[in-house]
Specification:
The chain is mainly alpha-helical. Helix content is 75%, strand content 3%.
């Protein structure tokens, strides 16, 4: 970790010198100021770990586990799409008159801003909420308990 941090700092200094020759030194001093202010809190977190309210994590997991089926059912019943099948979503949005070629989040957000179709808007809003909750659940909530030590902290 330290070698990576040192390399990043050296690279940062080089970029500032090359790209901002006049402001580089002032920017480096500002970065150094904040970097030094973060050493102690970071060291404490690494030493003591980060306390996790496992009860709150479990509560949030239950909430999401209720929301996901509700959102999936809405997408299936109202739009005839499977939120876990991007091709299904893409086909439906094209049927609704949208001119898109994939269902990546940034594309969906752009379509949502410009669409005049209430059906497209509802589909995109619900799908984005479903994807967000599913990501939070699978990437963060479900994996967190296995990272906790006996004292309820992540080290």
């Amino acid at each position: 970790i330290c070698r990576g941090d040192a390399f990043a700092s050296m690279y940062y200094d080089m970029v500032l010198d090359e790209d901002f020759p006049e402001q580089g030194e002032a920017l480096k001093q500002g970065a150094e100021y904040w970097d030094h202010r973060m050493i102690l809190p970071t060291a404490v977190m690494m030493w003591k770990g980060i306390c996790v309210d496992e009860e709150n994590v479990r509560k949030r997991e239950k909430e999401i586990m209720k929301d996901l089926p509700r959102l999936k059912k809405h997408l299936q019943e109202e739009h005839g799409v499977d939120p876990n099948a991007p091709a299904s979503v893409l086909t439906k949005l094209v049927e609704y008159g949208e001119n898109i070629h994939n269902t990546r989040e940034e594309i969906l957000k752009e379509v949502k801003q410009t669409t005049s179709s209430a059906a497209s808007d509802d589909l995109i809003t619900t799908l984005l909420e479903y994807r967000n909750l599913n990501t939070v659940l699978t990437r963060y909530i479900q994996g967190l308990p296995s990272l906790l030590s006996a004292d309820g902290r992540v080290h």
